[in-house]
Amino acid sequence: MTALPTAAQEAARAAQAAGVQLREVADLAGFVAVQQLFEGIWKPDPHHPPVTTELLRALTKAGNYVVAAERQGRMVGACVAFFGPPGEAAMHSHIAGVVPDQAGRSVGYAVKLHQRAWALDRGVRTISWTFDPLVSRNAYFNLVKLGAAAGEYLPNFYGGMHDGINGGDETDRMLVRWELAAPRSGVTGAEQAVVALGRTAEGGPAIGSLDGDTLLVAVPVDVEALRANDSALARRWRGALREVLAPLMADGARVTGFDKTGSYVLRREGR
After folding, report:
1. CA geometry: angle 200, 103, 137, nearest 5 deg
2. What are the domain boundaries of the chain?
3. pTM
């Protein structure tokens, strides 16, 4: 497969730029460290950890992806993914996280490029995952930097998650699919676009117009801060995004990227 050398080289360059080493985790101490890393990030209900050591052991024994990013011997990120139906040559990336004090240092990018090279080496063509569509930095990272394609809007996909990030609100998610051999590109702006969902001067959601072929759907500047400081406003944003974005996508509008101002860019064709 001609993409393999390029994928491996890109992954190596990304890891070097981020100053991390990526390693597959296959030992019990490593599984414990991965579980603890995720718990430190999400701060979940103790009865509902994001992953368990037993699950990680089973996934790796079956040949799935459990990888840690380390800097100077410290685990600073991790990712867990598993294979899909045999005929689809696909994987689903279940959870990935980077410790807060390493945010913005390209650790997550290094992890995803490692995952891409690892998957291509095993004949996988597509990796899917979900993310919270209200988190603007994740939307930009997934849709623009990685070039994954938004597939579905999934209301309350996991049910209520009582942890330090989701805050007990319903868990709407965006499902994306990353075509591993495709060029990475995503729209970062749009001309002559109609604002379908904007922001008020106070930072709340403002329903706009759907009368356009190119639409912008905004998200809050920092929904995680809102969940900590104004949970009612955070829930209003979740409801507004669900009201606007979900039916647009269900009706065939295509998410083509994410604007740097904090809005999804959608295009409707053939109206």
Report:
1. 30
2. 3-179, 194-267
3. 0.91
